[in-house]
């Protein structure tokens, strides 16, 4: 590893950065769909006269439909490539946005939401995987987390759109909110033409010359490009004596065949640990309640005592700004402090904020006849504090970590399983939150999320090793439980550092 650090330049490669930014546009579209629904639900319920149960279904159905996209994205990206899978996701989003924008009734609105959900599944798998595979180890954290910044920006744009278009006539406003979501899809369609294909996917296809060309563009030096190519060739099982200028027949074991068997039926101990880590981090990202805050923040603030629609939407915009600012701040921390430290600090702060939010909302709810101003402000402050801690660690690390830990031939489909768990958990929270607060009160709901966050901290402490600075091809060593092997590796690193 120390030898590679000498080869790799820690400066971010501009071409790799530009490619990751374009790939992240698909995440902006997804974030917009999530954020705009938060405000649009206020107007949809009034215009279409739908019930509370229909509101829950409309809010959460996108995540169940995302399962189709998530479980299809891994195999699709292994077959047609990472770049064209992003293009496919963009086309699906475009169709879903138009369907929702021109929906005359609840049924067609729900259909459009389902179509957009399939695009969500594709986007959540392919954007982080592409960004991880285009990046060098020293800058992988910041580039691979750009999709999460994209989601946060999209959510913020969705909140702002709800605020401004909410001033239009009731029948028109929410439809414009959704239709405008089709615009970024067109931008992505043009931007994707300038993106290179993932060099790791090209090697899997036996296109060594093309992979070498891409790596020379996304690396800062020829030595770095050559080192990365050799690592990828080794991981893909390519004959060391094979000439890089030729196209070879891809190894069947690296072209996506038998991947489900290696992931689920007969995984190695390392792969089993990787899968457990990926499923765990994806489950806890949403089981700790972030979707309840993002999707239903107007209702939370209303419970806290804010009545005006304009003030509710403005307070909601504050959530979006907080999320975007601290997601951006974490960009400068993830490659310096490491994934593990950032994650544990983030979840620790979430625990404190959630118990504070639960306490404040309980006090407000137990005083229905009087306005408890300090509790109202405490509710808003702890809500923002929760979003801040979530954004600075768990939001960012989840997507980087789960996209970087799997071996090359398992990466796309391993990531897709993680996203499937992510979407099911997200859907469960978003489709049950309104019923949950009726059953155990809104304060009780956030106490529950605080308890789940405590379990998450324990899980992360014991099951998630540090991956900072490791190449993608080193991950199997990171997830090896053989203490002797890991000790020898650490001793070797210490000796190199001393030299």
Automatic annotation (TrEMBL):
NCBIfam families assigned to the protein according to its UniProt record, in alphabetical order: SP
Q: Signal peptide span per the entry?
A: none
* InterPro entries for this protein: MFS_dom, MFS_sugar_transport-like, MFS_trans_sf, Myo-inositol_Transporter, Sugar/inositol_transpt, Sugar_transporter_CS
Protein name listed in UniProt: Major facilitator superfamily (MFS) profile domain-containing protein
Q: Which GO terms describe its cellular component?
A: membrane
The protein's predominant localisation is membrane
| Residue stretches making up the Major facilitator superfamily (MFS) profile domain | 19-468
Locations listed in the record = Membrane
Report the GO molecular function annotations.
symporter activity
What family is this protein classified in?
Belongs to the major facilitator superfamily. Phosphate:H(+) symporter (TC 2.A.1.9) family.
Record's bilayer topology term: Multi-pass membrane protein
Q: Which Pfam families match?
A: Sugar_tr
Which stretches are transmembrane?
12-32, 57-74, 86-104, 110-130, 142-164, 176-195, 273-297, 312-335, 342-364, 376-401, 440-464
UniProt keywords (A-Z) are: Membrane, Sugar transport, Symport, Transmembrane, Transmembrane helix, Transport
Instruction: Supply the PANTHER family for this chain.
Output: PROTON MYO-INOSITOL COTRANSPORTER (PTHR48020), SUGAR TRANSPORTER (PTHR48020:SF49)
């Amino acid at each position: 590893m120390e030898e590679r650090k000498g080869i790799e330049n820690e400066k971010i490669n501009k071409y790799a950065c530009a490619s990751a930014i374009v790939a992240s546009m698909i995440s902006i579209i997804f974030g917009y769909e999530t954020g705009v629904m938060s405000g649009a639900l206020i107007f949809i319920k009034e215009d279409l006269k739908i019930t509370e149960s229909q509101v829950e279904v409309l809010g959460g159905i996108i995540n169940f439909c995302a399962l189709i996209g998530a479980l299809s994205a891994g195999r699709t990206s292994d077959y047609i490539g990472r770049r064209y899978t992003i293009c496919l996701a963009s086309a699906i989003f475009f169709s879903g946005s138009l369907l929702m924008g021109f929906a005359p009734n609840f049924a067609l609105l729900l259909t459009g939401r389902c179509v957009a959900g399939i695009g969500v599944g594709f986007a959540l798998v392919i954007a982080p995987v592409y960004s991880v595979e285009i990046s060098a180890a020293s800058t992988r954290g910041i580039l691979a987390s750009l999709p999460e910044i994209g989601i946060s920006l999209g959510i913020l744009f969705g909140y702002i759109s709800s605020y401004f278009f909410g001033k239009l006539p009731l029948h028109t406003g929410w439809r414009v909110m959704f239709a405008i979501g089709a615009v970024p899809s067109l931008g992505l369609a043009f931007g994707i033409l300038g993106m290179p294909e993932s060099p790791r996917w090209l090697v899997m296809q036996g296109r060594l010359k093309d992979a070498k060309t891409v790596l020379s563009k996304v690396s800062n030096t020829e030595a770095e490009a050559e080192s990365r190519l050799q690592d990828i060739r080794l991981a893909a099982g390519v004959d060391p004596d094979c000439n890089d200028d030729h196209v070879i027949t891809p190894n069947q074991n690296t072209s996506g065949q038998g991947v489900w068997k290696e992931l689920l039926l007969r995984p190695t101990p390392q792969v089993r640990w990787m899968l457990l880590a990926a499923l765990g981090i994806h489950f806890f990202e949403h089981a700790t309640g972030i979707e309840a805050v993002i999707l239903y923040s107007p209702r939370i603030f209303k419970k806290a005592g804010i009545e005006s629609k304009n003030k509710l939407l403005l307070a909601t915009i504050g959530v979006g700004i907080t999320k975007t600012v601290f997601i951006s701040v974490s960009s400068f921390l993830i490659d310096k402090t490491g994934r593990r430290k950032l994650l544990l600090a983030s979840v620790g702060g979430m625990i404190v904020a959630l118990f504070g939010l639960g306490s404040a909302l309980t006090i407000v709810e137990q005083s229905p006849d009087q306005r408890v101003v300090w509790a109202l402000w405490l509710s808003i402050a702890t809500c923002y504090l929760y979003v801040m801690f979530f954004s600075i660690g768990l939001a960012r690390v989840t997507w980087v970590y789960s996209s970087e830990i799997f071996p090359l031939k398992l990466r796309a489909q391993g990531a897709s399983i993680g996203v499937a768990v992510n979407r099911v958990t997200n859907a469960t929270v978003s489709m049950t939150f309104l019923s949950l607060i009726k059953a155990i009160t809104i304060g009780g709901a956030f106490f529950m999320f605080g308890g789940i966050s405590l379990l998450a901290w324990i899980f992360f402490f014991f099951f998630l090793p540090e991956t900072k600075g490791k190449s993608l091809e080193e991950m199997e060593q990171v997830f090896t439980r053989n203490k002797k092997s890991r000790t020898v590796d650490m001793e070797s690193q210490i000796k190199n550092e001393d030299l």
